[in-house]
Specification:
Length: 146
């Protein structure tokens, strides 16, 4: 799996994000492109800020944790946590700027040695944080054809 901590992959994700526009059509799901960009910000901000802590949810850790960072693509139409669903339309330009900044901020975390446990998935290695973020972004960029 590609790594957001590698410069070429980081640039690729930014370029794919830049390719999104008002005419980008979703291939599945209900989110608009602006809502998707907003949705992608919270998970990556958890890693960037490294402030939230938790042992995770036992059921989530047992049944879903490995799927967050393994090489197997996620299936389409996975349920989204209600907290990560945009209730209103989001401005494409604003959300794109914010997400790209977070992707760049996450790239700067490549030298970080200490990661707080993820609030939902518990303890993750440096590599697992990286793969989880790449996999989530890639999934949603594919959702909108980029």
């Amino acid at each position: 799996m590609k790594s957001l901590f590698e410069e070429t992959t980081n640039r690729e994700i930014l370029k794919r994000t830049d390719a999104l526009n008002e005419n980008s059509e979703r291939q599945w799901g209900k989110m608009t492109v602006g809502q998707m960009l907003w949705h992608c910000q919270f998970p990556i901000s958890i890693g960037v800020k490294n402030e939230l802590k938790g042992n995770g949810n036992l059921i989530v850790r047992l049944f879903f944790k490995k799927s967050m960072y393994n090489d197997k693509p996620w299936r389409k139409n996975l349920p989204t946590s209600p907290a990560l669903k945009a209730k209103v339309e989001k401005d494409l330009t604003e959300e794109k700027i914010e997400l790209k900044q977070l992707v760049n901020d996450f790239y700067e975390c490549r030298k970080r040695n200490e990661w707080n446990p993820h609030p939902l998935f518990g303890k993750l290695s440096h590599d697992q944080w990286d793969k989880m973020q790449y996999k989530h972004l890639d999934h949603h960029l594919i959702q909108f054809g980029v």
